Amino acid sequence: MKERRVILMNEPVFDSYFYDEQAFNLHDTAYKPLKQAQAPATPLNIPPLLTPDKVDGDDVYYTVTAQAGATQLLPGEKTKTWGFNASMLGKTVVFERGKTYHMHLVNHLPEVTTFHWHGLEIPGPIEDGGCHAPVYPGEARDVTFKIIQPAATAWLHAHPCPETAYQVWQGLATMAIIHDQEEASLPLPHTYGVDDLPLILQDRNFHAGNQFDYRADYDPDGVQGDTAVINATVNPYFDVTTQRLRLRILNGSNRREYRLHFSDDLTFTQIGSDLSFLPHPVKLKKLMTTCAERQEIVVDFAGYQPGDTVTLYSDDSPLVEFRIHEFTPAGEELPTTLTKIDYPTPDPSLPVKQVVMSGMDETVMIDGKKFQMDRIDYTMPMGKCQLWDITNTNDMNGGMIHPFHMHGCAFEIVSRNGQEPYPFEHGLNDTVAVNPGEHVIIKVYFQVPGVFMYHCHIIEHEDGGMMAQLKVVDPAAPDREYHLLNHMTLMEAFAKERGVTMDELWLGGMDSYKKMGMHM
């Protein structure tokens, strides 16, 4: 049995956001500070779990439907929103390691979309659900994949190029949770909706009649709203009935970084990163999360009494109020060892892959090029580990942090500018935030073949071309070819669905190409 020891009281508590403070988005001239909405406190929405259509041994069948709806976010008119099996965001999808999932993906929206399983190590490009797997209005797509990775918090979001940012802004993002036997054996909060909570952090602007207006808010460096919307709830509170809460934090925003801390300077414990537990828990007072990152934390309310409140903040803006009720004292302490990361050793025959993220606004690129859907930018073998050197050369106006994301794999962060990664970065990840002028070395290893994207996850940046594409070759099928769509295929679909000509079509990412004198 795995050794479990009580966390020692003299273990370090980190009281820093760690990242380059001068590059925080609050220093951006386009930064929009959060403000508290004129709306009553509302119970935090806990998205229900998606119910399988059928379970046959280790085969599980789900239907996921992208649909339009209306959500009561503010007093007055409901806001027109999109979601997965819900009016906004969606139902939480649960996967178990070792099982095979048959996904029936249905599009009831008025325009083409895709279903991207962000964080799942599944083949690409079709199962992965990026831009090459469109589902047109009124149609469906069936995909099947096996979950081969450890317990983690992943998510599902739309990913049609170059309209990803708009569709996520409309609400097409929801959580996906992977369970395994190791997780089940750990003394952690496990009851979904009671002591194991999804916390999807987003921000929105509300225009006339409480409606979104993405085009009015458009910014090529990322759209930000002035109102925090957490789990599709404005001004949320949660009734705490257990001593410990496990929060699965997802930064589901298009652009915003969140600098998280609790009232009373409360210490909390990070137990997980994007795609695994941390080998050892890390105690923190502050945590910054950039776009698409996930962090699992445990908050301990020992010492609080019924009637007390604890508030989660980003900078000086309240996000969620936790209202303390009677609870039974927790039992077993958190272990000091959560997992062991056995990541493969880099293959010495593979050179270090250099990736350069550059620019802001319309100038964003990877390796000096803007994304083309039908172009393969790099090829690497499946089953071999390679070092990648990710550089952020941006220095415009002091530069900005770019969150670098890879589809289809879990990577290990090796170093930042030759130094150790941050204390909370020793798990497996699919996204890493890179400071201006910084080199981040990661180990990249694919267990599955296919064509996968890698990009900045400020979503307007990826739509604007800060994205590239690699082909992972299965040595058992080295000659396999993939049918890749081009941008024009999807843009013509958007124009037809909206009843406009190509000259009249507006998609935010198109402007980034046009203003650089480039074609999609």
Q: Give the distance, in angstroms, between the N- and C-terminal Cα atoms.
A: 55 Å
Quaternary structure: single chain
Helix content: under 10%
Summarize the main sheet: 7 strands, mixed
List how many beta strands DSSP finds. 34
Question: Would you identify the regions where 5 or more consecutive residues have pLDDT less than 50?
Answer: 1-9
SS content category: mainly beta
- Strand content of the residues, in percent? 35-45%
Instruction: Give the integer mean of the pLDDT values.
Output: 96
Specify the overall morphology.
globular
Tally of helical segments: 6
Radius of gyration, Cα only, in angstroms? 22 Å
Strand order of the largest sheet: 1-19-18-21-16-13-14
Organism: Limosilactobacillus fermentum (strain NBRC 3956 / LMG 18251) (Lactobacillus fermentum)
Keywords: Cell cycle, Cell division, Metal-binding, Oxidoreductase
GO molecular function: metal ion binding; oxidoreductase activity
Family: Belongs to the multicopper oxidase family.
Folded structure, characterized:
With 520 residues, the chain is mostly beta strands. It has 6 helices and 34 strands. Strands 1-19-18-21-16-13-14 form a 7-stranded mixed sheet, with no helix packed on it. It starts with 12 loop residues before the first strand and ends in a 6-residue tail after the last helix.
